[in-house]
Amino acid sequence: MSQPALLSRESFVELGARARAHALLDPGSFRELAGPFDGLSSTWLARQGVVPQADDGVIVAKGTIDGHPTVVLAIEGAFQGGSLGEVGGAKIAGALELAAQDNRQGTPTRAVILFETGGVRLQEANLGLAAIAEIHAGIVDLRRYQPVIGVIAGQVGCFGGMSIAAGLCSTLVVTREARLGLNGPAVIEQEAGIAEYDSRDRPLIWSLTGGEQRIATGLADRYVEDDSAAIRATVAALVAEPPNQPPTPPRSAAYASYLQRLAGYDPARQADAATVRAVFGDPS
């Protein structure tokens, strides 16, 4: 890409959660629900010496994308690593439930989830886990009516229980900077040792869990440059698609195939990018 083209781009990765929601919704349509002035912050963080945030690190914005009613759920990766607790998780789950209710009442509301999260917030462990389970149920319910689009841009990535939520989305959009995995690098290193996974080895991490690899292995559906306009255009095209189109059936319905592939892999061997592509790539 030429230097003028690079300079004209607005990085989506560098935007905060609220700015990302603004970038996706039609101008003038942004309406924040359960916002920072509604007093919905975690009651648990302060007890453990952590300063809470007024919106608990989750933005719920309702509006339109190219005229289509859409709710954008954006996780703020800069607050507690995008971790989800009771309040933030309830905001996402509740918004998904209301979007499904809209559809049952004749308003075809879509959902876009902007993942930037390490998963459950450890300070609110069981409450966060319960909220994430409700998010999973909300996605599965809503995607019966309208597309649920997930976007992983970077810099935090998407890990833990929210990586399952990403896998449940109708379509998953990633950038080169994105990462997607059930366990984060530091957790794997802590539990299995540095010989298994060096969390400081950035080339290794991105070669296994980065956006380019996830596209190659069929665990993500659209690959986009880190450019707000390009991501917005991709999301808008997906929002406009008829329900239950991409992919059909949902990726989560193919769990038997994934289990079969994993059963043939020897975990005693050190995984690398080529191995992962061989295991998860198109068998044809």
Automatic annotation (TrEMBL):
It is an enzyme of class 4 (lyase). InterPro entries: AcCoA_carboxyl_beta (IPR034733), ClpP/crotonase-like_dom_sf (IPR029045), COA_CT_N (IPR011762), Malonate_beta (IPR017556). One of its GO terms (biological process) is malonyl-CoA biosynthetic process. Pfam families: Carboxyl_trans. The keyword Heme does not apply. One of its GO terms (molecular function) is carboxy-lyase activity. The keyword Transferase applies. It comes from the Bacteria. Residues 1-254 form the CoA carboxyltransferase N-terminal domain. Keywords: Lyase, Transferase. Its EC number is 4.1.1.88. This is Biotin-independent malonate decarboxylase subunit beta.
